[in-house]
Every structure is written in structure tokens, then in C-alpha cells.
What we know:
The structure is a single chain. The chain is mainly beta. Helix content is about 5%, strand content about 40%. It has ten helices and 91 strands. The strands form 16 sheets. Strands 45, 46, 47, 48, 50, 53, 54, 56 and 57 form a nine-stranded antiparallel beta sheet that branches. Strands 58, 60, 65, 66, 67, 69, 70, 71 and 76 form a nine-stranded mixed beta sheet that branches. β80 (about 1050-1055) and β81 (about 1060-1065) form a beta hairpin. The longest helix has 12 residues, at about 1210-1225. About 45% of the residues are buried. Mean pLDDT is about 80; it is low at about 1-30, about 990-1010, about 1095-1105 and about 1160-1240.
Amino acid sequence: NKNTYKVKVPALNSAVLSYVHCYTTIGSRIDRRGGGWTPERTDRLRWLQVDLRERVEVTAVATQGRFGSSDWVSSYALQYSDAGRAWKQYRLDDSTGTFPGNANADGVVHHKLSHSIRTRYLRFLPLGWSAEGWIGLRVEVYGCSYKSDVADFDGRSSLLYRFNQKSMSTVKDVISLQFKSQRADGVLVHGEGQRGDYITLELHQGSLALHINLDDAKMHPSSGHVSVSLGSLLDDQHWHSVLIERFNKQINFTVDRLTRHIRTGGLGDSLEVDYELSFGGIPLPGKPGTFLRKNFHGCMENLYYNGVNIIDLAKRKKPQIYSVGNVTFSCSEPTAVSATFLSSSSSFLQLPADPAAEGAEGEGVSGRWSAGFHFRTWNRDGLLLWSGLQRSERLLLLLADGQLRLTHYRSAVQSAEITVGEEHNGQWHSILVSLNGLQASVSVDNEPASSMLLGDHAQLGSTVLIGGCPAAMANQGCRNPTLAFQGCMRTIIINNHPVDLYRVQQGILGNYSELQIDICGIRDRCLPNYCEHDGECSQSWSNFHCDCSGTGYTGATCHNSIFEPSCEAHRLTGSASGFFSIDPDGSGPLKPTVVYCNMTEEKVWMVVGHNGSAPVSVKGSSLQKPHVMKLNYSATLQQLSTLLHRAEHCQQEVLYRCRKSRLFNTWDGTPLSWWLDRGGERRTYWGGFLPGVQQCSCSLAENCIDMNYFCNCDADRNSWENDTGLLSYKDHLPVTEIVVGDTNRTGSEAVYKVGPLQCYGDRFLWNSASFYQESSYLHFPTLQAELSMDISFYFKTTAPSGVFLENLGVKHFVRVELSPSVVTFAFEVGNGPVVLTVKSHIPLNDKQWHYVRAERNVKEASLQVDQLPLRFLEAPSDGHNRLQLNGQLFIGGTASRQKGFLGCIRALNVNGLTLDLDERAKMTPGVSSGCPGHCSSQNRLCHNRGRCIEKSSGYVCDCTHSAYGGPHCQKEVSVSFESGTSVTYTFQEPFSVMRNKSRQSSAIYAQSSKSRENVAFRFLTTKAPAMLMTVTTYHQQYMAVILAHNGSLQIWYQLNREKQPDVFTPTQHSLANGKLHRIQLHREGRDMYVQVRPTWAKSGRGVDEEVLQAGSRGFIGCLSSVQFNHLAPLKAAILNRGSSLVSVLGNLVESNCGELADKSSSRSLSGELQLINAESFTDKIIQESIKIFSTMPAEDGRFTVCSDLGVHPRRTEKLNSAITSRRKQPNITVLAASPSHTCC
């Protein structure tokens, strides 16, 4: 093979190995004049293979172009192998397999490998090369020698390490080894003791599982047991490293650079193992050659147990080692050759139907015939096998929705099929397809075959296609019905003849396209798991998907919290008092928590309760046996710490009454009672915002009953005294424990009650800085955003351009900047600069606040400016994904002090943390804390989504995007609906995600789409069923919010015309009770969040008769403050009667019904947020019209029910019948909707 070089180190100049210290390079022989490798242009196989003569540890590689030419390699892949076959691709830490190469023939490009590889053979595969010339390559490999002790286990053998004593008890263990396995299951290490201790390390479906128990199983069953799995696809017949470190209960478990830290339960700290440890299997005592579990089949090397080299002892036949079965000390290589099908559209392998007669052109096969192979893939769909039969018949074997389907096509309209198998989740599976006379059968994983009759004796054509169909065979009926197969195959046997894939590779046998032979390129894209916040990862061959259902987070990687960060933020959205889930660190690691937001006062109070809210009476306690009460809050201490840090002010009342019960010893001042703060520290002050020592509120107010003491209780009187105090030092709150120790005397008693934690204000919402010199900036520590990053802030300026934010690395960077009417988000992670832009139709330097949010993760990047369409780009699935930054984060300028921003920035949030611009600005020249103007403080001048606009002599509130009106967007916009009243609001344009037009990035990233709604409104009615709101599209999709017959709230979604609608019932009790209710709904993709109380919900599928019946009744009552995304349709109907966007039928009367109901007996349903998952939700919806309507009777008494709700015309007759029978009213007609008209 002219592309394979066997290199005698260091004789050849084109490829050499430098044996030096593992992390040192020396003057490279790569620079010597002359030499270099270049393939023929006609070569189909282009690689440079290096034989290093023995397994060595490779730590770096370097490349150079061919000497004296215009030939070089601009990018390449690196593969390695122990035996020159069964190759594996090297991947960098960010999972990309592409190495940047040279830009000319003379320069040398070095790459220090992030993790070394131990191998004998290397392959350099050019991926890109000189546009001026051709492929040219000189290489050098850096590394050091590597020695190892190897043992080969054949699946029926094991090694036993026997202890010197009967039992070995250890509190510290270290087990290390490397292994490569030929199958997905098998025990590597096992030891157990008679009292129930055990440790087992085993492969299970390609993952490595560690099971350990340190407790007496009889006395404490399962209490000390722990199991953990790590790794994936470990049966790939390549080396993997394992390290287990245990000290007492703490265990570090590492597989291939992935580490899990775990802790065992139970009481025991030691591992007691009797007699022996076994490696490779668990032999059954007294029965040689019999094993309890599947044995390991493969090789282990450098196997150490607590410093003992097990394999070395076995090789030297030491008495501590007993060998069971055939264990050898050289590693046998696998015989199966794999092939990787790379493309979902153009991969195929074409073979003769009878390899034994491959020279006979055009002859078919009759009689018995079979085809078998092993395959593994993540994809749920793909063509596995195609074969033509007589008379244009054909036989297809498909992966269809994760199952195997064998189909016999007799004609275009006549077929028969068999469906077998279960999910194929990346594991190897064996397939056997057989034809025998009139019968075809398929078997999976050696299970009994499933068969079908063919109707005639089968006669195959001359060709069998595996994995896909070439375009040239479309006229023979071979077309990829769904996708070509993407995955790995091996052990292909056609008609009992094994297929030699090396002959296929050399062009001697068959034909192929988009195949890699002698390598299985399957990857686990969910390892490591890039889905954040407990999102569930699933994958295909080329990508992964995060299911964020139930997490409270959204986005491609479940990065973004759907909850507001504080009660103050909820108030700004127009919410009323109630229980809310809030997420104080946004996209940070902490989960959301439920709090009560009291919005009835000027200040918005957040209330966090605990388990000790009732008064507690204490008697009989002393310092030796004190009374102790631990307080458990509805939020974790980490969540509470973040909430307190964000709040302006926090307080907690401790009610304390006493009778002959002192807080302090009056002789020496020793505390007799105290409380613990959130850090577990003892505190002895009982009031105030300063952490004083041994004082109560009466001391601060100077009104204690006896001024000789600092607390009323210390007067030690027989009467009841009061030392209630208000604690307000945030660093110590909340109270986590109360200790009372002086109630053991006659007549002594104390009563205490710890109130909830209460906080108001959000000091980050208006944290701001003003930049008034172009060369000024604020700097912060380096942005920690390797895999995900979100940046959001508000700005206002009169300057046309400037840099908001910049952070640089050696090659990478991130920048957000302003140019005239355009905001740009740019970054570089190694795939070339990516630029997203949003252009505004109005100037952005209008001295008004504008909102910017930029996000980047391993799957996509996005940019949002105000209410303008979201721009976002998908990331390449196999590109670099780690953002490597090392400079400071500059705000309002750059490191070069050029293009600085002039104006104000506030609420700058990075990955859930708000940067304290206000504090940093106080010490920076050219920058001042705060922002001038009326709209730059948290005085809440404009409410309910209202936008504050600066004027020369004051401000005005723009309530355009608010459902409220009035000078401050606080006035309810309410409408009384009578029978026959309806409002229709038609959107000007579909709500769609716009594709970014950046020339630099459009070739790299693809368009995708999002789907979301935010809905809020208040209503009052006594009639049910009732239609509250519908959103319809021209694509027969709809959303409807209705009251059912029993008055319960129902939310209907139909986003997929092929499936039944989803219906959700957040409340079971009737809301048609004449009281005012508030509904908030948020949907993001497949997840819907409903704010409603009580917290009960169910989901299900049904027909839309309920919706039509609610629509036929309409709505009679009061609707108030209706918000849909950034639109206020009800307010638009009142204020813009002549608008072409608003259509009103019937008598629409503006009312103050919402305000009156609020004053009398308002009831907020803004309860705890809960998640409902709809399996049938799609990820795309284009909303075109929103309707709030009641049907209007015509003069002849007939009713017309609009079926814009997605009703197919063919269902009209059925629905007419259903409604007529249900209502006993024949004068109802259902009209089918069409794109050309709206029937209401």
C-alpha cells in the first residue's frame, strides 16, 4: 500500500518519533530539507500511516507541508490502533476530531495532545489541503516508551488474588487498571465478605458499574449499598482506564477522565472481604469453570490492587494468584472488521447477492438465501438492506421508529411486512434475514425468527444493498424510504459467505460510498451530558437533544430559567399577591423555590416559611439538657443565601416571652439561650440590624423594665415578660435553630415563636453605571463560559456606536456591541467567527432603555433585542464547542480603549449572576454609579410591563405592550361581554424566528425555530361552559382556554394536525363563581407552566367537542387585562376601534368590573407554578389570530359556530350532530374554516 509507511525510527524524514520525556519536545527533525508524502490524485484512500514498532505513549504531533512545493494539509484527523487494524479516531477535549493543520509548506504546527494515547500505529488522514497545490505532509510524533503487564481473558477464565489471612478489612482501597472488551457485559473485579460487604466492578451494556456495600447486610440491609455507572460504548475493543479510590465512605470513581464522587450510606467505614478478590469473573466455589455472572472477555493491563501488581504476580506464578481457565499474557486482537456509514443521505455498501459467484455478471440467486450482520446506531430510522426480486418485487429491511421492519413489496400498492425488535440504543445487535422458498424471515439477537409468506418462490437479483441506495439505482426501485443508515456494521455474511471489507475498501469487491472501513465511529453525544439542570439527554448519530420537561428550564441545553428572579420582578410583570416559584440565580446551578409574594403594600415582600411557625412552650430545660428546635425552610440554605444577597432588606421576628427564665446568666454573662444563623454559628443578640452581643430589643430602645439588664427576661421576674425582637442583619439570617436552657426552676417557662423570613426589594434590577468617557470601562474577572453563556442587560445612550462587553482569549473572544440601529453579538470558539445581528427599525440611541439578551451554548447561539424577532444559529454538531477565555471581562469598553460605550448600562446579568456595576463604578475614572433620569431608579414609575420614556421635563409611561392603561399603566382595562359579543385581533405578521443574515456564519449554522406563548388575563363569570380565549392559525392549529361544564379551567392545544389535541385541567373546582380570577400561562416548546391554585393538574387527550360547546356558549361576564406575549388585544379593541387589526362584533362595553371585583372579593389564582408536559407538542407554531368571542344569534334565531379552531371540513357533519344532540338545539350550524375567510 503506497499510502502506508513503516518508519524505522529515526531513519525517515517524513515521519519520525522523538523518544523524549513525555512532556518535552526537542528540535524537530521535521524541518530537515527534502522529503514529504503526497498521494496520487487518483488514490481513493489517502492517509499516512506510521508504524512505531511497539506500543508507546504519544503526547504530541507536528505537521509540515512537502518541502519545496505548494502542497500542505490544512486540517486532518488522527487515528490510532494497536495492531494496524480496528482504528479509533482521536478526539480533543471538546469532542472535535479535526486538527488544524498548515497554512503553507514551510511552517510547523505542533499539537500537544490533551490526553496522551498509547498505541503502535498512527494514521494522519487529510481533511483539507492547499488550494494552490495538493496534499503534502511531513509529520513528527512525540512521546515516550510505555511498558505494561497484560492479561487476556477468554470469557471463561479469571484470576484469584488470595489474602494471607482469612479476611481482609480495609478503610482505604485503590484499584486501577486498563481494559478493552470484546463484549458489552462482564465482571472485571469482585470481592465479598460473610457479613455482607462486597465490591463489584462490571460492564453492563457498555457502561461500567461499581457496586459496593460497607455494612453488615443482616443488621442493616441495603443501608450501606451504593451503585454508580460511568462511561458508555466501552465495548469498542479499545483501551479504557479505570481508577477507584476509597477512603472510609468517600469514593472517587474515574473512567476515561470522567469522575464521579460518591459516598456510601450505612454505619460502616471498612470493607471486609473474605479469602480472595477475583478478576475477570466470579467463580462458583467448589465448581471449577462455573461462574455466577457473565465473565469479562477481553484484555486487562497494569492491574493494581492497593499497590499490588496482580498480573505481574500471575505471570511469575506466585502462590497468591490462582488462575481459573485459560488466562494468557498477550492481548489477542478482535477478528471482526467494522464499517462506519457516515451519511444519512448517500452512504451505501453494494455487494453481490452471491459472493461465491461474484464473477457471474447479472445472475440472480434462487432457492435458499440469507444475509446477516451486526449493527449499532443511535438513529431510530434508516435503511439496513435492500434486494430486488423477480418481476420488480423487492425486499426491504428498515429501522422504523426504533424497530426492525422487513417489508416485501409485490407492487406499488401491495406489500406485506413483519415488525420485530425493541429500541436499538447504541448497542450491538445481530440480524439474520432468510429466504426459503415461499417464506421470508428475520431474526434479531438470536431470538426465534418471525416469518411471512411471499406468495411465490423468491428469486433475488444480482445485487444486495446495505445501508442505503445509490442514486443510480432509483430506476430499479431502490430509493431511501426515510434515511440511509448511519452507524456501524460488522460481521457481514451474505449467503453463508463472510464479506471481506478490506477487499471492498481496495475496490476488488462490490462498491461503496461515504463509508469508513476498519473503524466504528459511533460516539456517545450524551457523555458528557451537556443538558443542564437535570435535563434528559437523547441522541441521534449526529446530534443530541435535551428534554427539559419538569425541570423549570428551557432552551437547547435547559440553560434558561422560566421563572422570575424575585418577587419584585413578578410585580413588574403585573402579577398580584400569591405563591410563586422564583429562581434567584437564573441560569445558575440553584433550582427554583416557592415563596409567597405579598404585593398589597408599596414594598413587595417575599415570605419564606419553615416548619416551626407555631408558638412553642418550653419547661424543664437546662444548659446540660437544653431544648433544641431545628428550623427547616421551604428553600435550601444555598437558595436562601442567594435570596438574601439579592434583596435590599430582610428581617425575621423572634417572639420570646418568659417567666423566671433568663437569656443570660446574670453573674458571669454566660448565654443560657441562643440561636444559630444560616452558617451554624451561635448568636446571642435578639434584635436589631447590627450583630451585637448579648442584647435584646429593649436595650436598643433603652426601655428595658430593669435598666441593669440588657434584656427584660434577665430581670428574672415571676410575671410574664417580653423580649420579642426583629433580626435584620442579612449575613446571619435566617434563624436555623433555637436553643433554650433556663426553664428547669420552679415556675420557669418560656414561649417562643420564630416568624418567616421576609425580604423586600431587588437590588440588582436597577444596579447600573454611567460611562461618560470613550476610553473608560469597568473590568471584572474572566467570563466563565466554556460550554454555555447568557448575557442580558438594559442600556440607554445617545451615541450611535460603542462596545457593551468584550472578553478575549488567545484565539477565542466574545463581544457585544452597538452600531447605528444594530446590536451585534460575536464570538469565536475555533470554528471561525460567528456573528449575529439584530437591526432595529427605530434608532437605538434615543436615550430610552433597550433590552439585550445574548446566549451561546454547544448547540446554538441567539440574540434578542427588545421585542424584535429573535435571531439564532445552530452550532455545527462536530465542531469545537469550548470557549477558552483568559483576559479580563471589559464592560463599556475594550482592552484597546477604543470604541468605548457612552451611556448607561443596568441589570447586567451573566450566567445568573448580576455584576455589581454600581459598586465597581465608584472606584473607576470616567464611570459613575447609577444612571441619570427619571427612568433610572426602582421607584416603579411604570407598572405592568409599561415602559418608562424620558422627556426633557419628566417622563411618560408607554403602555403599548401592557394590558393596562392610565398614566402609570396601572388602570385595569376591563370589558363586559354580553351574549353575542366577540373581539378578534389579527397579527400583522407571523411570530417566527428570523434567520440571521450574517455572511460569515450562515454557511456554518442552520436555521431553527422556537415556539412559546406568555398569556395572562383576569376574568369573572357565573356561566359555564364558556370560551375565554382562542389562538388559531391558518394551519389548523389552535390553543383554547375554556371553562368546562363544571366550571373547571381547561387549556387545549392542537399543534399537530395528525394527532388528537392535548387538554390540561389545572383546577378541578368551578371558577364560574362570580369571583375575579387571574390566570398566567407560559408555554415553551413542549412544556407548559400554569400559575393557578390549588396545585393540581391532569393532562390527557380528547376530541374538541368541549371546545366547540364552550365556543357555542361564548362568554358572558368580565374580561380584564388580557396579555398575549407583548400584545394587549382587549385594550387594542377599546382604543383602536377603526384599526384593521381589530374586529368587534356585538356591543363591546368598557367597564370597571375588574377593578370593582378587586375591591370587593378578589381572589388571585397566581398560585404555585407547575409543569405539564404535552407529548404531542411540536416545536413550531405561527400564531396568526387571537379571538375572545361569544357566539351571536342571527335574527332568525340560528347560531353560527366558528370552526377556526382547527376542525377538518370532513368532521363538520359529525360535530354538527354532536352539538345538536348535546344542546337539544337544532338551529346550530358548524361552518368549516378555510384560509380564505374567517367565519366569525
